Amino acid sequence: MRNVWVNDHATAGARLRLFCFPFAGGGALAYRPWLTQFPDDIDVVPVNLPGREQRFGDPVIDDLSAMVEAVAAGLKPFMDRPFAFFGYSMGALISHHLACHLQQAGMAVPVHLFVAARRGPNVAGHRAPLHHLSSDDFWRGIANYGGTPTEILENAEYRALFEPSLRADFRLSETAVSTGLPKLFCPITAFGGADDPNPVPDELDDWAAATTSDFAKHVLPGGHFFLRDAGDDIMRVVRDALIA
Q: Distance between CA atoms of 204 and 196, rounded to whole angstroms?
């Protein structure tokens, strides 16, 4: 039976799997360019979260603990060999908490955690929350983040279609508590945009305290969605770290 969390991207012959977690409102398609950019023995496995793309009809999850439990169960069959996590913004939050959950449970843990566009776990957020706002105010806040296509922002039907999953993602992110988590044993590499106001590049430094292993930081051109313009640079760093 097909696993709804990973679709058909995981193969039996992989030496290592790279699970990729999307930003708020995003989905597995954000990582489509990655599928052909890694060696054949590394599976790039975009994670399909409920309520979007192929899982559009599934109930959304707006609580981080519930999301971690669900993802851990969904990915368990594919953690039968070494694996790494890459998470972007909300995806970084989910992948970090998931890695801590696996470590605390005595399960297999990632060999490397890559986080992008997310402040360190002990750095307080400095944007007013959006998830509780009226629809109009919510979408005004979303527009301020940048990265949302104009055709969605200007179309009431599209907004109504995508609002439940996007609002759930923001509630998950804005109500999450990351302080007090255990230090991971694996290396952490953090990426940020030079012009991103949230997080600013200095707020990535706190990730060094989230591991007992090595830490690296890369600041790339762009704002919060620097993935779109600097994706090749991110892939190069991730690929080199996993091949080494």
A: 11
Catalytic member of 65, 89, 135, 178: 89
- Cis-peptide, bond into residue 199, ω within 30° of zero: yes
Helix (H) or strand (E) run with residue 166 in it: helix 156-175
pLDDT value for 52: 85
Chain position carrying tokens 């970090």? 96
Q: What is the pLDDT of residue 149?
A: 82
Q: What is the pLDDT, as a whole number, of residue 126?
A: 67
Could you tell me the pTM of the whole model? 0.92
| CA pair distance 60, 93, nearest whole angstrom | 17
Q: pLDDT, tens digit, for every residue of 216-237? A: 999 999 999 899 889 999 999 9
**Is-contact 95 72, C-beta < 8 A?**
no
For residue 82, with 0-12 CB atoms within 10 Å meaning exposed, 13-18 middle and 19 or more buried, which class applies?
A: middle
* Whether 165 is catalytic: no
